[in-house]
Design goal:
homodimer; alpha/beta; Transcription Elongation Factor S-II, Chain A; Aminopeptidase; Glucose Oxidase, domain 1; six-stranded mixed beta sheet; four-stranded antiparallel beta sheet; 23 helices; about 35% helix; disordered N terminus; Peptidase_M28 (chains A, B); carboxypeptidase activity (chains A, B); PA_domain (chains A, B)
């Protein structure tokens, strides 16, 4: 009985992430779009979209980026305030501004290194003689990189503290890594060095503490980011896009998003705050990120057994577990490490962390274009404004694109040639780097109005991750091939409804400001960027990410020379924005939600059904499984009443504020994050993995609980799509 | 800053409970209604309402009641199924039925006494000789009252068990009562006898257990219900509406509403269930209700010190605390108590409770009239169907009224003379007596659709509590005076907007099926009944409530002879229903929500502001207090965009699913239940009372937390009423 509902969702429903498919796919091919879609398509003025596209200017974007990245603009610093002023000035411009622009401030809990007492990581002898000091700041290659406002690399929300111990290598700091390491090494009192990837930043420390590890170092392995390249003499930036040896990825070491002291409440000055000691999800032990130049020196000198093959990285040495600690001095010591020669194998690694926390006012800058017909329906477009350093790519590439979109739209509004049907809200969020704080506080403050009124949220954070690679450039967008065709070529899937279409990822994580909109409010959301061909490099992200090298120089030389990638993103995002704002019927397509649920269901049945049956937990009746689902799917679409509120509110119908008590802010039972690594219903997948590993009856109960949550949510969502009656009787029309 | 929002709500907002005022008050007087209200009033066809009113027939209601009360119809019994069939037959009638009617079943956790092992309460000697046995069933005065299906009086969800101990008198079983009693009596191992009132049913046992009390008896004191009258020879039923000496109020002894094994999930057959041992809010010790005939024998023989004056009741003896236990035999023993003469003062009271729990299918019967213009907007009208015994008044008076409304409306629909603009859903809920189960499961199952689509919920449970009293009859409605004028005369208030108007209560509790709609879903709700003049009697409810005497005979003789009270309720409720379903603009009025918030604020400031200021917790700035609020209130109403979705969704905007973790199902931060006894914001009032009593810093933190929740909810609700932008910038239009 449960799963017939999937069929109804299929037959009646809406797309969350497939807006582009609807337009670049359906609208172009015209083969499978129902006739009503064509009838209402004229509500969007295609010539206006053409005009918008033609006016989006790559040089304007380049100049936006130049001015946004003049100085480092970490949240709540003077540089951040400069960017606030840039946004306000642009959005209040009488020629090209919006109807209204203003600032909204929140008092948020942030963590900083102490300028007067920089964090240090040293190798010390038993008598505390400093044998080696890890580089404090990254090596500058351009004047802006030596700006005194470049913040020292640090792990935000790591506690201050002074710890030392023998070094061990813990791979990626996953629970399984520490468990493996613990088999042969006594971890009590050790310092663990871990590489980025595989586990969340703070998880590397949270997972370590139960073993008695007292401090954690984190570095980026050249194999994971640089395709093995390590030398700044000719291989890395400033010679390519790769991370230089002293580069360090900064980051927020927390799990929950939003201000950590005001869960579920907007962090206004007078708001109730929890005690800082009650914060969860941050490192319990001092933690510091370092460059691979230093990591190399430490890891290649580690003693003990060789680590497993899967733990090896890009250094030209064997990665050992650590004795714990370093090898005996009898082993070959490189010249560059001569300092280590003194009692090297008995030395400790010492962390002196002086991070401090402070509640400071952080600003969102808001912009508004009033809708002509439905002013109280919102299409929201946002990106954060704060960076770790200059943030040319993260986030200023996205902000530059947003400013170009608002310039072109603002001009049309000021000239009186266009006003959207629905209102458009632009958000330039503050303090995203510390955990999506500006956007999360905004969604908490205006929860009810945004829930009821928001049509969709568009996020463009890092607009261009890489347009071409040093080795194999992707064809420039808008030249030989359209964005759509390019996309289709590089990442695609075969949909039962649409045939071959570009593949979209699912927004199941909390990687940028879409998370509070999608997971907390249940607003249909998309996150858009232009990215490089991932088959050509191991780099999991552009290599200057969160380093001092993410500057205008880097962006314009190695990420998007000529800014045509940015231009393509601005055109695409603006196109979607205009269609969402202007279409009489919202351009949200049922078919992809249905397909996603169908895929999730089929995965879940494959993975879990047999075992659950043996435990007397039913996943639903056989007659409603795939063949019938597709049947219902194809028969029903024209029968439903397609009205905008149904389309708009469908995602909201999947919210259950109680389903994930341990996942802050996650309420969406389809798209919530999951640690089980299965592409299926997240609550079910996590509960199943947990129950299978523990074998405890109470954990199997949670599997059963999540099946019930899911069945109720899907039925509930389907009920919102019937034309009149609640679902149960309505279904009888089809039997 | 916080409280300016109140002004906006005032200026922009909506009435929750004042629908009738809007029509009987504003529309009639016409003096203060804005012109748009008159313009759209023609959307409702007044002649149709007149026609409806004239067709509502008191004799039909009487006959409905007769057929519904033929047999006892406790939830899930054969009698309950008979009423299901009556509802289905009536709602599926080809001449006078609805568009559609069907059954929805839930598998719910119920508690029953064991027919084969009736619960017994006895007085036993130290050697377990039974000295006296409490009456097992009520004394029948009519044949239907001796129906074998009349369930033995019991406390649903009291655990089974066999306990005995010395008797003590614990007044109403409030925490303060046990605390007072415990000052002079060692309560360990005792049985407490308590009277109804002052604390929830299960609370009397929950409050007792920590003192070591092992069992609880509950009775209705004649002073509280019978104005002191006790004799069935000439005073009580069958001679008047008063409760006979053997009458016992049955009831559900639980706190949370909805199925206790499936919190937040609809209780379908395959749904995940918690362990019964994890249920909270039910008696931890055996509990049994008894008649005052038996309570008299027990209480008047109690030894120990006299209880305080406030604890005394209607018996012609002094209520003592209990020695613990009875007086020494040397005291005068009445003839009727001769059995007690054997070692009376050393005897125990013994409870042998055989209640058992069972998961059984309970049915809601649903009816549907499809809306012509907005079929996916719902006006919901409901009442429960299950009773404890025959339930002539509770709930069949309401069901009889509902059936008459559906007969008249159904006939117009079947004849094609009327179809409402919006859809109407009728709900005949199952298992309400066990804790609003049918309605709560329905709201859980269809949470999303009902949240998004419901315009309002109308509840008519006990339609007529009493039309006239034996002493001072209220004028029959519809004769000398209109319902409105009658109401205005007996309970009124002076509103700044409307002047003298009928006073409405607030739906802050969970007394009937409106609770899941109002508190869990945030749907604007009303609960309606015709009641007696409360200045003329102490009876807190009609005296046959939940007894075997709540029969057709009782209803037709003592509650509403001629059924004209029922007729008045059917006309009034139907009138409201038609207006909600047919009005182009929803007939919900902002002014009363604003006034209620204003009253709450002013109460909160009076009660709490000074103390909180001394603790450095701000309640908001002075400039936004009452004078300005009223100013804004009067200036703004015409500026807002009055659209139905705003009106419909305003209550939803006050929901916070996390604000009351200890109050199951309560999410509405304005109307949630409160134990502080202050007519102001419930979370604030409770937190304040708690903090003041404990003095702990963490409890004062909770006060601060609730202020923040409240401020955010009110600001959030106000944001849903602006015409375009979120609230903060919008407010600047008025400064």
């Amino acid at each position: 009985e449960n799963w017939v509902i999937i069929g109804v969702v299929c037959g009646a429903a809406v797309l969350t992430v497939g807006i582009l498919i609807g337009h670049f796919g359906i609208a172009k091919s015209g083969t499978s779009a129902p006739s009503w879609l064509k009838d209402v398509a004229k509500d969007v003025d295609e010539s206006l979209i053409e005009k918008f596209m033609s006016e989006v200017d790559n040089i304007q974007i380049q100049e936006n980026l130049r001015s946004l990245t003049k100085v480092p603009h970490m949240a709540t610093t003077a540089g951040d305030e400069e960017t606030v002023q840039i946004m306000l000035k642009r959005w209040q411009d009488p020629e090209t501004g919006l109807d209204k622009a203003w600032r909204e401030e929140y008092w948020v809990y942030l963590s900083f290194p102490d300028k007067n007492n920089p964090n240090t990581v040293t190798v010390v002898s038993p008598t505390n003689t400093v044998l080696h000091t890890i580089r404090e700041k990254e090596k500058p290659y351009t004047p802006d990189q030596s700006d005194p406002e470049v913040v020292q690399p640090y792990a935000a929300y790591s506690p201050a503290g002074h710890v030392k111990g023998k070094l061990v290598y813990a791979n990626q700091g996953k629970p399984s890594d520490y468990s493996e390491l613990n088999k042969t090494v006594d971890l009590r009192g050790t310092i663990a060095i871990t590489k980025y990837g595989g586990a969340g930043r703070s998880a590397k420390a949270i997972n370590a503490a139960p073993y008695g590890v007292v401090g954690v170092l984190v570095y980026t392995d050249p194999l994971d980011m640089n395709d093995g390249l390590m030398s700044d003499a000719n291989e890395t930036y400033p010679h390519s896009w790769y991370m230089p040896p002293s580069g360090v990825e900064r980051g927020s070491y927390n799990i929950d998003f939003g201000d950590l002291l005001t869960p579920h409440l907007a962090a206004k000055e007078e708001t109730y705050r929890i005690n800082a000691t009650d914060i969860t999800g941050i490192p319990p032990i001092p933690t510091q990120p370092i460059g691979f130049e230093d990591a190399y020196r430490l890891i290649c000198e580690l003693g003990g057994e060789p680590a497993p093959d899967a733990w090896q990285g890009g250094f030209n040495c064997t990665y050992n577990f650590g004795g714990p600690g370093f090898k005996p001095t009898s082993t070959a010591v490189k010249a560059s490490l001569s300092l280590f020669c003194v009692a090297f194998h008995v030395s400790d690694v010492k962390l002196d962390i002086y991070n401090y926390e402070e509640v400071k006012p952080s600003s969102n800058v808001m912009g508004f274009i009033r809708g002509s017909v439905e002013p109280d329906r919102y299409v929201i477009y946002g990106n954060h404004r704060d960076s770790w350093v200059h943030g040319a790519i993260d986030p200023s590439s996205g902000t530059s694109v947003m400013l170009e979109i608002t310039r072109v739209l603002g001009k049309m509004v000021k000239q009186g040639t266009w006003r959207p049907r629905r209102s458009i809200i632009f958000g330039s969020w503050g303090a995203e780097e510390f955990g999506l704080i500006g956007s999360a506080e905004y969604t908490e403050q205006y929860f009810a109005a945004l829930s009821e009124r928001s049509v969709a949220y568009i996020n463009v954070d890092i607009a261009v991750f890489g347009k071409k690679l040093h080795t194999a450039p992707v064809k420039a967008p808008g030249h030989e091939k359209s964005v759509y065709d390019n996309w289709l070529q590089y990442t695609n899937k075969t949909s039962p409804t649409h045939g071959l279409i570009p593949r979209m990822g699912y927004l199941t994580g909390a990687g940028s400001d879409y998370a509070p909109f999608s997971h907390y409010l249940g607003i249909t959301s998309m996150d858009m960027s232009y990215t490089y061909d991932k088959t050509k490099t191991n780099a999991r992200i552009y290599p200057a990410y969160h380093t001092a090298y993410d500057t205008f120089d880097y962006a314009s030389k190695y990420i998007d020379p000529g800014f045509v990638g940015h231009q393509a993103v601005a055109r695409t995002a603006g196109n979607v924005l205009i269609r969402l704002a202007d279409s009489l019927i919202l351009p949200l397509n049922c078919a992809d939600y249905a397909e996603s649920l169908e895929e999730y269901l089929s995965t879940a049945l494959n993975l879990y059904e047999q075992k659950l049956k043996s435990m007397n937990i039913s996943m639903g009746k056989n007659e409603y499984q795939p063949p019938l689902l597709y049947h219902v799917f194809f028969l029903r679409p024209l029968k439903v009443r397609w009205i905008n509120d149904q389309l708009m509110l469908l995602d909201r119908a999947f919210l259950d504020p109680l389903a994930f008590p341990d996942k802050y802010g996650f309420r969406h039972v389809i798209w919530a994050s999951s640690s089980a690594g299965k592409q299926t219903f997240p609550g079910l997948a996590d509960a199943y993995a947990n129950a299978e590993s523990s074998g405890q009856a109470s954990d199997w109960d949670k599997v059963h609980y999540h099946l019930s949550v899911l069945s109720q949510a899907i039925l509930g969502a389907a009920s919102t799509l019937t034309d009149d009656m609640p679902i149960k009787e309505w279904l009888k029309n089809f039997h």
